[in-house]
């Protein structure tokens, strides 16, 4: 984290929880603005610059999904985290379709929330990552996410959509740790055990595709995720 305070937009209609979260985040060094509904949240977002948006899903006037889509219409990169009492897969998927980077289910511990926010800010603030990038150089390989094509010299490997999506995330965070939960939620829609095992299979496939360049390695970072080591 840099010395400059990260600015957080918090939209939460429960006054007790809202003020509790605002005070906690401010005590932890976040400049936190509180909105009590989606409309107020969007008005604040239009007038100010924020490093992260923390949005309750169920709010009066305008719900969190609608607010997230409106925020995305103005800024495609600012991280959005949902606070939700819902745990159904369909609601989680709707949240990511609305532009969320992560979600945390109520009830949650303040410590867990803080760790999630810090992890997201490390990935998106000051790391130089471009979340819209679609073409990459990975060692001696060229990768085009849009075409789902991995090229090495005059050889081309066509990737499946999930292989391409996973390699894109690894390439975006090249030489950084790609959080396992973030990758699962971004690509599969949830971080269930089944999906986690499925992702491990895709990681193994990507390692095979990248084996022509011995300087490339996809490392398992125990308890955290993966790191693509490449020049």
Question: Which terms summarize this structure?
Answer:
Arc Repressor Mutant, subunit A; 12 strands; 2 domains
Give a quick precis of the structure.
Helices cover 41% and strands 23% of the residues.
Structural description of this entry:
- The protein has 231 residues and is an alpha/beta fold.
- It folds into two domains: 7-124, Rossmann fold (3-Layer(aba) Sandwich); 135-229, Orthogonal Bundle (Arc Repressor Mutant, subunit A), CATH 1.10.10.
- Helices cover 41% and strands 23% of the residues.
- The protein is built from eight helices and twelve strands.
- It has helices at residues 15-27, 38-47, 64-74, 89-97, 110-124, 161-172, 180-187, 193-209; strands at residues 7-11, 31-35, 52-56, 80-84, 102-105, 135-138, 141-144, 149-152, 155-158, 177-179, 217-221, 225-229.
- The strands form three sheets. The protein has a five-stranded parallel β-sheet, with helices on both faces. It has a four-stranded antiparallel β-sheet with strand order 6-7-8-9, with helices on one face. It has a three-stranded antiparallel β-sheet with strand order 10-12-11.
- It is elongated and about 60 Å long.
- 33% of the residues are buried.
- The mean pLDDT is 87.
The total count of helices amounts to 8
CATH C-level class of the largest domain is Alpha Beta
The separation of the N and C termini measures: 25 Å
How many beta-strand segments? 12
What is the average per-residue confidence, as pLDDT, rounded to a whole number? 87
* Global structural class: alpha/beta
Overall geometry comes to elongated
Order of helices and strands: EHEHEHEHEHEEEEHEHHEE
């Amino acid at each position: 984290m840099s010395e400059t305070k990260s600015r957080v937009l918090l939209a939460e209609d429960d006054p007790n929880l809202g003020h509790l979260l605002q005070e906690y985040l401010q005590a932890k060094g976040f400049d936190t603005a509180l909105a009590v509904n989606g409309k107020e949240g969007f008005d604040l977002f239009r007038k100010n610059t924020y490093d992260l948006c923390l949005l309750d899903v169920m709010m009066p006037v305008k719900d969190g999904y609608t607010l997230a889509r409106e925020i995305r219409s103005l800024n495609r990169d600012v991280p959005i985290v949902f606070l939700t009492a819902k745990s159904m897969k369909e609601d989680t998927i709707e949240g990511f379709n609305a532009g969320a980077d992560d979600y945390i289910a109520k009830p949650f511990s303040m410590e867990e929330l803080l760790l999630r926010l810090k992890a997201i800010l490390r990935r998106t603030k000051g790391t130089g990552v471009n979340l819209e990038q679609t073409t990459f150089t990975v060692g001696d390989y060229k990768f085009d996410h849009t075409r789902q094509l991995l090229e090495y010299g005059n050889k081309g490997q066509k990737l499946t959509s999930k292989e391409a999506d996973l390699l894109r995330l690894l390439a975006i965070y090249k030489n950084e740790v790609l959080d396992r939960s973030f990758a699962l939620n971004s690509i599969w829609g949830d971080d269930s055990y089944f999906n986690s095992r499925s992702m491990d299979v895709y990681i193994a496939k990507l390692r095979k595709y990248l084996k022509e360049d011995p300087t490339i390695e996809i490392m398992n970072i125990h308890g955290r995720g993966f790191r693509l080591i490449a020049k």
